[in-house]
Structure formats: C-alpha cells, structure tokens
Amino acid sequence: MTVASSWIDGALVKTGGAQHTVINPATGEAVAEFALAQPGDVDRAVASARAALPGWKRATPAERSAVLAKLAKLADDATSELVAEEVSQTGKPVRLATEFDVPGSVDNIDFFAGAARHLEGKASAEYSADHTSSIRREAVGVVATITPWNYPLQMAVWKVIPALAAGCSVVIKPAEITPLTTLTLARLAADAGLPDGVLNVVTGSGADVGAALAGHADVDMVTFTGSTPVGRRVMLAAAQHGHRTQLELGGKAPFVVFDDADLDAAIQGAVAGALINTGQDCTAATRAIVAQGLYDDFVAGVAEVMSKIVLGDPADPDTDLGPLISAVHRAKVAGMVERAPGEGGRVVTGGVAPEGPGSFYRPTLIADVAETSEVWRDEIFGPVLTVRAFTDDDDAIRQANDTKYGLAASAWTRDVYRAQRASREIHAGCVWINDHIPIISEMPHGGFGASGFGKDMSQYSLEEYLSIKHVMSDITGVVDKDWHRTIFTKR
Ligand code: NAD
Questions:
Q1: I need a surface site. Which of 163, 187, 390, 480 has the fewest CB within 10 A?
Q2: Rounded to two decimals, what is the model's pTM?
Q3: Can you say whether residue 258 is alpha, beta or left, with left for phi > 0 and alpha for psi between -120 and 50 degrees?
Q4: pLDDT (tens digit, 9 = 90+) per residue, 310-348?
Q5: Could you identify the atom of ligand 1 that is nearest to the CA of residue 204?
Q6: Relative to the CA of 211, which ligand 1 atom is closest?
Q7: Could you tell me whether strands 364-367 and 384-390 are parallel, antiparallel, or unpaired per DSSP bridges?
Q8: CA distance 437 to 441
Q9: Is 120 a catalytic residue?
Q10: What gap in Å lies between CA 85 and CA 87, rounded to an integer?
Q11: Taking a C-beta distance cutoff of 8 angstroms, is the pair 365, 379 a contact?
Q12: Domains of the chain: which residue ranges?
C-alpha cells in the first residue's frame, strides 16, 4: 500500500491531520493511507511557494520551458505508474486512463513547454510623442489551486502547468479521495529540475485545508475546478483579499439532434458523450434535445447501445464502464433517477445498481422528462442521459439555453447553416458540431454562467497566470515637460 503525504518545499512531508484511506471504488478496498494536511500545513506550503517565487519568476522562458519539456518526457515514461494510480483511486477504465487521461496530460505539459517561450506583447511604440510605451507580462505570483476527483491528473495539469510556464509558484490541493497522481506529478516535476518550493501539494479535506488555501492572505490568485456551490464559496474566500480567481465549475451539456442529422452518428455520440468517465465529466452529454421526427428512433438506438455496455473491473481492457466514485455518490445518482418518474420521466434502460462490490451503476436513459424536472435541470454526474423532443429550431436552441450552466454543448446536423446558427446561439464555452467531448491542448476549455469563468488549456490559459504591466519611458530628457503647464506655471 502506498503511503502518501503532502509535498512541501521539494519533499514528501509528514502532516499531522487525521488518518485518511484512499478507497478503490471498484472494490471498496484500500489503495493508500496517509495523514491529511491541516491548515498549518497550508501556511508552510504557501511560505515555501512565496520563497521560491522570485527565482522561478526570473528564470528565462527557455529555462522554464526546459523543465516542463523534461517533465512531459518523465510523465510519458511514467505512464504505467500514472495509469495504475488513476485507475485504482477513481475506478476509471484502464482504456480511458491509457488513451485519454495520461497522454492528454503529457501533451498538455508539452504544449506549455512551448507556450512558455511565446509570451507576446503588443508593439512597443511612442503612443505619446514624448514617451515609449511597452508591455511587460509578469507572473501573477503564488497560485492556490483546488481540484476535483473526476480527472485528478488532468485537472492538476490543466491548472499547475500553465501557472509554472508563466513563472508562478503553486500550492495545489487535490480532492483528498484522489491525491495519488497529483503527488506523483510533483515528484516527477522535482526530478525534471523544478526548484524546491515552486510546486507544493497539500492533501487535505475541502472544509479545512481547501478553505484555508482559498482564503489565504499570502497567495495572489485562486484557481478552482469543482462544483458550482463550492466554487462560489472559494470565490468568496478569495474576495476577502481581493485575489484574482478563475473557476471551472459544473455543467449540464445539451446535445441537440436536428432532423437532418446522421442518426447513427448521433446515437453513438450520445452514448459516448454521456458515459465517458461514468458520466462524471463536466462536459458530458446530459440533455439530449431531439427533433420530433427522430425522437423514437433515437431513444431506441441509445437504449440498445447502452444495453451492450460492459461494466466490470476497471483494470480489464475489455471493461467499458467503471464504478461511480463512491457509494455515497452512487446513492445520490440513484436517488435522482428514482425520483424521475414522479416528475414524468420514463426510465427506458438502466436505473439499477448491479449486485456485488463496488459502486457500479448501469447506463441509464430517461426519456420524456419534463423541462422543470430535477434530472433535466441539475447536474447528476453519473451515467445518465435524459431526453426531450423539440418542435422547431428555435425551440431546440431555447431548450439548449434553458440552463444556468454554460460549459459545453453539441449540435448534430448536416446543414451548414444550422450548424453555424447553433454555434452562434448556444450559450456555452464550447460548441461541438457532429461530435461531443474531444478536447485539444491548443484550444481553450472553460464555461459561462454557473459553469464559471476563465480558461484552462491553450494560450488563453497562460494569460490567466500573467499580469500585464505598462512601462512608459520619457524619451525627451527635458526638465520642463510640456504637460507640467497643466499643473503649475511658476517655478
Ligand atoms: P467539489 O466542489 O465537491 O470539490 C472540488 C474540490 O474543492 C475538492 O478538492 C474539495 O476538497 C474542495 N473543497 C470542498 N469544499 C471546499 C471549501 N469549502 N473550500 C475550498 N475547497 C473546498 O467537486 P467534486 O465533487 O470534487 O467534483 C465534481 C464537480 O466538479 C462537478 O460539479 C463537475 O462538473 C466539476 N468539474 C468541472 C470541471 C470544469 O472544467 N468545468 C472539470 C471537472 C469537474
């Protein structure tokens, strides 16, 4: 059993909080045991990040890039270790961890190794005849980061790596139920040459360690990925000190199938989009909005594909769907599905938890749901797709936008005009056309509305961790500057 701990100032350290066991949700067995951090450990980690900041901030872009490029290589070499940790602590299928989580993280690190050397500024020029103006982009400073349990490695990478590329130092608090890959990332970063203290990991609970980090006076920025209610609490804590925040929150993605769509492609896309990571994905397809003429065939097709999904040991490459993260979370998902018929929903397939160990739940399709129903409006975060019909294109767009969230959406159509209209009118940070889920390091990820603000991934994410400074230099050398007349006339 791994003995994990917190990572502060370049080393694993003993923390004095309560004993905590990381559980494999597929088996209920213990994976790792360690002492949680306490708020005092947050102070140590922040002090370490503060002390390390000047050196890292002043490192040249090429020096920072070299460390990140080495980290990408080491993470790639450590693929099997990272996959094993991710699978055992989250229960995600090994195919997903091997083909998505780890290579996606490696590619993201690699992208920012390059982006670190592309800090562009606007032209330096004489916007006033007597001065040269130039722009400096400077690291924001010490970044506090709080991440969720659904994609522990990717969420850590998306926050930590652009911050490091920008010259910031970081204290990250992963979800205490999934800390392993974040700790491994810190160790690999040290092996890659990242100076001590530039990246620190505190493995504590949200209520004390997370709150202490979000509200810490000596950080400069707080970035958060997680649920909308907790994100707002984090923002409030950071607001006490006026700290910059960036929030990636919940989602309830619409999946709009117009009447000219390729029905087979939409059916497959809906199942893949709804079931990825057992539906514990903020961009997962959750609300299918389907043209009346295709509705019955879509429902039947999705139910058929879902019925063939293989649940089982996440370490088995033949397994399609792993368990939910915990028994508590499964009870929450099951409760929402059980209440759906009371609100008019028809459970077409699924809605059952298989016998045996592990918090497994069958892929579930609920048709005919009411627009006001809980399963249509609230995040379920499980392998559950809900479906409603629409009457015309305006109704489809209206239903797609009838949500407080705005993270991701997709539109399925072979009509280029409809596709363009949908991409313009759907209010979400990402709109896919004839696909749902793919992401890429060069392009931004981030939401609108209750899904938060700011971007992960891409050059836009680097901007989150940089402050823009205007430098204005007098180029005349004269004592009596022309504009002084405005202030005084006699000397
Ligand atoms: P969560 O909000 O419960 O927890 C997220 C993190 O916040 C954890 O590390 C937790 O310990 C910490 N935390 C809890 N209370 C805190 C407090 N008072 N102060 C500071 N930190 C605190 O979310 P979760 O259940 O871990 O993750 C699932 C949620 O994350 C879903 O809502 C999902 O949509 C969202 N998510 C969003 C994105 C995105 O990019 N928008 C990506 C992944 C997950």
A1: 480
A2: 0.97
A3: beta
A4: 999 999 999 999 999 999 999 999 999 999 999 999 999
A5: 11
A6: 19
A7: parallel
A8: 13
A9: no
A10: 6
A11: no
A12: 6-249+451-471, 253-433
